[in-house]
Amino acid sequence: MKKVIITTGGTGGHIYPALSVAKGLIRRDIDVLFVGSDNRMEKDMVPKEKIRFIGLNIYPIKSIKMFFKLISAVKQSIKIIKEEKPDAVIGFGNYISLPMVTAAFLTRTNFYLQEQNANLGMTNKFYYKFAKKTFLAFEKTYDDIPIKYQHKFKVTGNPLREEIYNISNKEEREKLKVENGEKIILITGGSLGAKSINDAVLNEWEKLKEKKNIRIYWATGKAHYEKISKKIEKRNMKDIIKPYFNNLINIMSAADLVICRAGALTISELIELKKPSILIPYNSIKVGQYENAIILEEREGALVFNNDEAEEAVRSALDLIEDDEQLQKMKLRIKALRNLNATESLINSLDIWRN
After folding, report:
1. What is the DSSP letter of 119?
2. Which of 59, 51, 16, 17 is nearest to 35 (CA)?
3. What is the number of helices (H) and of strands (E) in the chain?
4. Distance CA 11, CA 13 (A)
5. Are 269 and 256 in contact (CB under 8 A)?
6. DSSP class of residue 337?
7. Are 196 and 220 in contact (CB under 8 A)?
């Protein structure tokens, strides 16, 4: 039986694409081992999916002590490779993938990389020259890659949850009992919420109340929900305000417009579902959300605002939601960015299928 080691962790943005590929490999009878950290969310998420998991004691390299922990994790990763004898290692970024990707390099094990964002992360930037192939979410990443290495890259899109490829806008709107002429705005700052977006919506709430044909789905984030629910009076019975929506993809599919951050997976989901959006990227250079947002802005599929312009962003959303012609144009422009099923494309590109 063929065997693949997948390595990443830390955040959903890294873990979900890795899990999507892991499940795709398992469906093809590949033995999959997931190597992450023993102290981040993957240690619970991966075993729940019934995927074999090993956690390393690895932390960001911010001190000499953490550097020696990295060395120890690399040694442990080499031992894992020698015991498991994988046909390939696939790294999905984050510092958590560094030990196993380093071990693959040192043991001359074939390894692949996948980048979720528009710009290469630290581990992928360091190792792409030695990888068999690096799979990209967006064409824009080629701008940062020397021409002589571009043949080692392939744009597949971000591997997403399988259900997103079969979701139907019409069916989801029927489930929500959306009436003719009624518009849906989804507002979300991610699972933790986004204070700037929440504050902007609060400040513009009275203007939102004037829009009678709009239904709001607002995910405030757990930390912000209680404060917001005490401050506002619902516009109507159809508005749904919660800390988080477990069926966020379904609501996004039904929505006419999305107000959100610009995480890599969010951008990929907006592209797959062809959703016009108002993007307010998280203002950290390390996270790289602005570069992600530009991908949609350049195709005129989204309007982009910074945190200080969040109220202007909400006001723009109120104008845009009434402009059916503009919304339709944005959908058509987003459609040009769509890839085929990224999970299948990535898996089909691995050399492990050769006899």
Report:
1. S
2. 51
3. 15, 13
4. 5
5. no
6. T
7. no
Q: How far apart are CA 179 and CA 182, in angstroms?
A: 5
8 A C-beta contact, residue 70 and residue 96: no
Q: What is the CATH number of the domain that holds 294?
A: 3.40.50.2000
CA angle 184, 187, 190 (to 5 degrees): 140
Measured in residues, the chain has a length of 355
Tokens 């104008």 correspond to what residue? 319
* Contact criterion met (CB below 8 Å) for 121 and 35: no
**Overall domain count for the chain:** 2
Give the alpha-carbon dihedral of 306, 262, 270, 111, to 10 degrees: 150
Task: Give residue 205's domain range.
Answer: 163-335
Helix (H, G, I), strand (E, B) or coil at 271: helix
CA distance 325 to 197: 26
C-alpha–C-alpha distance, residues 198 and 310, integer Å: 9
Sequence letter at residue 3: K
Same domain, 305 and 176: yes
| Contact yes or no for 4/89 (Cβ under 8 A) | yes
Read off the DSSP letter of residue 204: T
Tell me which amino acid residue 253 is: S
pLDDT values of the chain reduced to their tens digit, one per residue, 355 residues: 999 999 999 988 899 999 999 999 999 999 999 999 999 999 999 999 999 999 999 999 888 988 999 999 999 999 999 999 999 999 999 999 999 999 999 999 999 999 999 999 999 999 999 999 999 999 999 999 999 999 999 999 999 988 898 999 999 999 999 999 999 999 998 766 688 999 999 998 888 878 888 999 999 988 888 888 888 877 677 889 999 999 999 999 999 999 999 999 999 999 999 999 999 998 765 557 999 999 999 999 999 999 899 999 999 999 999 999 999 999 999 998 988 899 999 999 999 887 5
In angstroms, the CA 347 to CA 2 distance is: 13
Same domain? 188 vs 283: yes
**Same-domain status, 84 and 138:** yes
Output the CA–CA distances (angstroms, integers) from residue 292 to 178, 263, 283, 296, 304, in the order listed. 31, 7, 12, 8, 10
Cβ count within 10 A of residue 17:
30
